[in-house]
Design a protein that fits this description.
about 220 residues; mainly alpha; Serine Threonine Protein Phosphatase 5, Tetratricopeptide repeat; 2 domains; 9 helices; disordered N terminus
């Protein structure tokens, strides 16, 4: 076999493996999504949630290590870490939040539109939910910048509209919050994400009730 034919054969073999790796990564991401939703919305009790989320963190880290140039697993590792921080709360969670932030930022470098802008929405949510300087990196201007970027990518998405609506609610911009929260509530269902969608809609309804109270004052 000539060198040219050998090289061509190797290239074809490499190309043939790409769908296999992509399918494996996609299956891993689906597993992370589904287990995250189960923990967040169906597991009761802080201790039980933390035990489950810590186990999922290990799985997510292994998935990222196996797919170092794929943004999707990286985003989910960040979401899982951010969820851990949300369960723990307080100053002890800041290290975990910073890890999540770094993962979202790295995923944006790899693919800024991955998972329909989930990194932008997640990063924006961190910026408005954590304390500002000198305690942490909280910054409402950056939060709004990232949340609007997520909406530009996925204008009708449940998460993009929910997080921006919640940001507006925290800023007491109640009329704007109601608009985005209603869009989130009526967002199209996501295939295979029934548990996550149902749990998110409960959060949206709670946020809408708060926004309506704010408007009534």
């Amino acid at each position: 076999m000539t060198f040219t034919k050998t090289l061509l054969s190797l290239c074809l073999m490499a190309a043939a493996t790409i769908p296999t790796f992509a399918q494996a990564a996609s299956a891993d991401v689906t597993g992370l999504q589904q287990e995250w939703a189960r923990i967040k919305y169906q597991v009761s009790g802080k201790d039980a949630q933390l035990q489950a989320i810590h186990a999922l963190e290990e799985t997510a880290a292994q998935t990222v290590a196996a797919n170092p140039n794929s943004a999707e697993p990286m985003i989910w590792q960040g979401i899982i870490l951010a969820t851990d921080a949300g369960i723990v709360k307080g100053m002890s969670a800041l290290g975990t939040v910073k890890q999540a932030k770094a993962l979202f930022e790295k995923s944006l470098q790899l693919d800024p539109t991955a998972l329909e802008g989930s990194a932008q929405a997640s990063l924006g949510s961190l910026y408005y939910q954590v304390p500002g300087w000198p305690v942490a990196f909280g910054d409402d201007a950056k939060a709004e910048e990232h949340l609007k970027a997520a909406l530009k990518i996925n204008p009708n998405g449940i998460d993009a509209n929910y997080f921006y609506g919640d940001f507006l609610l925290q800023a007491k911009r109640y009329d704007e919050a109601v608009t985005y929260l209603n869009t989130a509530l009526n967002a199209p269902a996501r295939a295979g994400r029934q548990v996550a969608d149902a749990g998110r809609k409960q959060e949206i309804k709670q946020a809408l009730a708060e926004a309506q109270k704010g408007l009534a004052k």
